[in-house]
Design goal:
Strand order of the largest sheet of chain B: 2-1-3-9
CATH class of the largest domain in chain B: Alpha Beta
Strand content of chain B: 5-15%
Number of strands of chain B: 12
Shape of chain B: globular
Oligomer: heterodimer
Largest sheet of chain A: 2 strands, antiparallel
Number of strands of chain A: 2
Strand order of the largest sheet of chain A: 1-2
Strand content of chain A: under 5%
CATH topology of one domain in chain A: MetI-like fold
CATH architecture of the largest domain in chain B: 3-Layer(aba) Sandwich
Radius of gyration of chain B: 27 Å
Number of helices of chain B: 20
Chain lengths: 313, 568
Amino acid sequence: MALSYESVHRKRKGIDLKRLKKSWQLYVIIFLPLAFILLFHYGPMYGIQIAFKEYDVTKGIFGSNWVAWKHFDRFIGSYNFRNIVWNTVSISLYSLVFGLPVPIILAISLNECDSKKYKKFVQTVTYAPHFISMVVMVSMVILALSLNNGIVNNIIAALGGTRINFMSKPEMFKSIYVLSGIWQNMGYSSILYLAVLTGIDPTLYEAAIIDGASRMKKIRHIDLPFLIPTIIIMLILALGQIMNVGFEKIYLMQNKLNLSASETIATYIYKIGIENANFSYSAAIGLFNSVINCVLIVLVNQVARKVSETSLW
Amino acid sequence: MKSRKLFGLVSLLLVLVLLAACTQTPTTTGTGTTGATTTKATTTAGTTTGSTTTSSNLTPAGELPIVKEKVELEILIAASDTVLDYETNGMTKKMEEWTNVHINWTMVADAAESKPLLLASGDYPEVFRISMTPEELSLYGGKGVFIDLTSYIDQYGINMKQMFDYDSSVKRGLTIPGGKIVSLPTYSKTYHMTACNKMWVNRTWLEALDIEVPKTLDDFYNMLVAFKNDDPNGNNTADEVPLTGVDVVSWNSSIPYLMSAFIVTDNTPGRYFVQPYTGAVDVVFDKPEWREGLKYLNKLYAEGLLDAECFTQDSALRRQKVESGVIGATGSNAPSAFAVADSELFKAYDAIPPLVGVSGKQQTAYIPSGMEGTSVGFATITSACENPDVAFRWFDLLYSEETIYDNLFGTEGEQWRKADAGELGINGEPAIWKTLEGFSGVQQNNSWYQTLPTFRRAEWRLGEVAAKPENYYLRAGMETRIYDATTLYEPHYNTNVTPHIIYIDESVASEYADTKTALYDYMYTSTAQFITGGMNPETDWDGYLSELKNIGLEDYLRMTQEALDAVG
């Protein structure tokens, strides 16, 4: 049935019931996930109020007393607050700034690869570390950096330098954390970008070659523009996670000597919270984190909208 | 055709996935949903409304069975690696025979997850066999969720009173602020754990260099220097690491042993209290003796005698180093922690006695083993229990000497036997018992193996038939070996220690937790830095002290003192 001019260009006032009826199956499909999100993600949000209450299990959420900002005061007033928040934010930003470009470069390089065999080989080698468990990975890192037997120090000594006790130095902690993370995840993260690149129309490349473009020029004028929307989305999403530095890896890599650089919000709460089932306090800190994440994501989205055509919404 | 096949395959897969989800064994919780029955007591004679069974159904205290007419009791317990099925377990059947009480087991898959949910729901099982923390005992015990057992202990607690007599810290540790006792502990006094700060030295190296076991701090220092310079492992390379350890404070750290020569230092995190306890609690890490100890340790570190990685490595890495034959000495509670069982290196280490300290005497920390913070709230009887007196007597029976073998191991003659005359125990005294081939600590159904409360005296534990002398240095003989090691430390114990189970009042709990965490984090980091040279014990000490003050050392001590005094 041909579409009439009106049906396509009709000004939409309110809900277009006719269109709705035509594609009702799609709405049915989307209904289930939507209901799931509403029920399990938005529904329980009323529980956030315990961040402002002294949650007492015998009184329940609604029966507990209001204490307003008490938990936030406690958190912000705690001895190490500034250091902990700084560690959390800086580790996140550091991971982002160095972690974002590497998978992109990897994807572009793989795309430029002529030999299929070599490409597959590199892909396998770079994807493999992603599947190693966190505990094993940290063990490997500690061993590799070990003072007397670790491979890194052995190389340093062979080149004539003095051995360094990496894990004992707070100033090195963040770098070790970020670099090991990049090593582990760059292959897996590059998949997304590689997918975009393989979807580029080959005739564009041919046209560029005819125009006399070198390899670098091709990358700059074809690959990158196609990748930018994906990069921006990934960036916005990553910034929305900035306060959520993962607990496991930090906790495993922490030791008494690098604590000043390795104590993050998650590990701090673990140490305090493990003593009492302190729901209110943990909820308050979670809220604190989420609000910051939210503000950031909105800000960055606005910037992205103004600066480019891509944005999350 | 192809898409049809694919569609068929996908739908088959979906159906299988749904089926798999449906046939999972339902895990029940105290809210009594699906699965196991959670019937309450239904006695025919006697009341079910009041909080006690009428005395007509209960037999006199100390007699078995506990009730004349069968009574049902619900126990909520977490699934265990070691017990196959509580319903059909050998010990369950025996207990039912002896006591005439039928247990309805309510299983939960994950205790840590279920516990807060169950407590929050308000729908409690009759008995929790999930460990409660001191905070939870104080909180819920105070509200009456866990009932007060004091009167039952007086009336029926024959075995529990014996436990109180054996170790005076038990009653003290169980009493929550307000004076009630709301939990049933599990108690196991492990003799060798009373001296966790043992130092193990490589015997073959001492022999190779013809050095005697060090007695003073200077002897120890000289021994380490000899280890470093004189190639005791005979491979012509200077690869020896004289002393190593794991972390600042832990059972595997070398710091507490050496620090004790200056000021007695426990190795349990969060327990750096001055011993003996004089009624006023104090910490050791701001004392001049501590400072002297730091200087000594710093000297060891600076001269390469203390492993530079001791604060950054984990036990696995240390074990590797030991196994490669480069370690001279290390702190630990047992060889199994730092060596692979039955290897050459496993056999090579001997424990040495405490060093003569600056006071002129040998001194070491006494660690009260027995009832830890984790075992004080091992089981609790809730306000939902229909027959709390029956429940209490049932648990009290588990603390007796008669039920312990069936509780832990299984049936006499199959999993365990009494010792023969002439067999010696770990402590060299006549032995009491021995486990047999039929006993295993994994996946069995003969006993409850440590998942229900027990009362194990130190002498009973040491009454296990010892391994043959030829196995002394093997894994099989390790119990005897660490017993002997502990006897080196015992003469120097001061058993009057700061009570280790502390109930903090709810109103200050969060401030206490915050201050304590900040304090100890700073202390650990500073100690590590003082030793490794990042901070100087000469010049930075005053800054360290004032920072401790800043964080709230005085508040911490005050709150701890109040908590200790509240229980009296």
